[in-house]
Design a protein that fits this description.
Length: 248
Amino acid sequence: MSETIAVVLAAGLGTRMKSDLPKVLVQVLGRPMIEYVLDALESAGIAKTIVVVGYRADDVKKTLAVRQDIKSALQAERLGTGHAVKMAQPLLVGHTGPVVVVAGDSPMIQASSLRTLLTHFERARPACLLGTLHKVNPFGLGRIVRDEKGEFSGIVEEKDATDEQRRITEVNMSTYMFSGPDLLYALDHLKNENRQREYYLTDCPGILKAEGKLVQALPVLQPCEALSINTVDELAEVEAEMRKLGYH
């Protein structure tokens, strides 16, 4: 299997963090949160990474300058997660191996989870594999809908979900693995027909499934990976959990 490339989404602001820093540079236990994401990717054996930068791009690039094998792609206008990955598209042309897409503001991503997903990907060779988990209170998160055979059917966002779908506990955590050519195909067919006029990466699995390609969801992420950082309170919660797990 050819080499894996990671795409890390790191273009956002830290507005709700009460900071004018790019969100991924907000300190978690004394380190920019993106550093933990890059460490996990490296520990999982992923040597090449593209970081999609946007707000205060130069500051993010300067922080990452000490790391080798990292390239950057600029998202000058923030038009959604799918648009962010599109900015990395020129660096992915011709790549036939897996592409891992993760958020730069998820410092609790685990290398062990990434390794499990990569092993499954290598065995099953899907067009797209989503890393998911079961969450006791899934409010606000996209639910993983499965058909009667238990196969991946789609992602339904909270606002669009029926009462029955809202009871689903398996959720999308923005951890994706695509085959390189299938990702490029999906990005080329992304549309922004929604109220925000944005391109969503969450639409890519559905585009590939509609083409008859194999799309799977594997609920192997650990409970700690459900912790995200959007507010100062959530930052404190993540730091407490990281201390418990022995991070430093």
